[in-house]
Description:
The chain is an alpha+beta fold.
Amino acid sequence: MLKVIIAIVVVVALTIGIVYVIDKFVPKKIKPVINLLLWALIIYLGYATFMSVYGEIQFNKLKTKRYATVIERLKDVRDAELAYKDLHGKYTDNFDTLIKFIGEAEIPILQRRDSTILDVEATQRFGGVETYKTIVLIDTLSYYSVKDSLFGGTDSYKNIANVGVGEPGAKFKLQAGMLDDIPVFEASVDKSIILNDQDKNLVAQEKQVVSVDGVNGPTLKVGSMEQINTNGNWPQNFSKEQ
């Protein structure tokens, strides 16, 4: 937007300069022709400036809408990865594995309770004096379906790898591994894929964003292979929930 404002100021200054030169140095006989050409130039520059501003406004509207769609899909990936980790103790970097897991897996609902039992060894050590110890018991109360819990029983999870907007057929990049012996994952997509049909200069600028209220960097992602977190890199204005 700053570049657009500078362009407007330059156009205004240039117009004033041209008018001054015409008034001072151009013969009266050809002034009408020059004025006509000047008005045509002013109209063209005004239109070009307007379209530049309007184009950026429309770009930002479309960007926000597409980002919102991608963010919801990334949240689905995160929720599925967290459920996968609950059962397997790690994340997966394979969407086929994740999709199969969602469709088939049932996660146990566990209850922890303390119980007191006779400590046989301690009882023997104390000459037959009954001694008790506390143990922790884990009871399986029931199971819940990952598919029903995360996707309302629908088959929408089968498209979890798809970005859904921008470049047709584009899929998220999914990574998983260990960081300091702790499981981590990252699902991401390049902004140029989300905005593939937009002005290349505006897309290039968007990929360099560093802002509190913007999606920083060249990608939209959730999780991280460099930090231990499962957050997305989008600010609150793009999503009601992190």
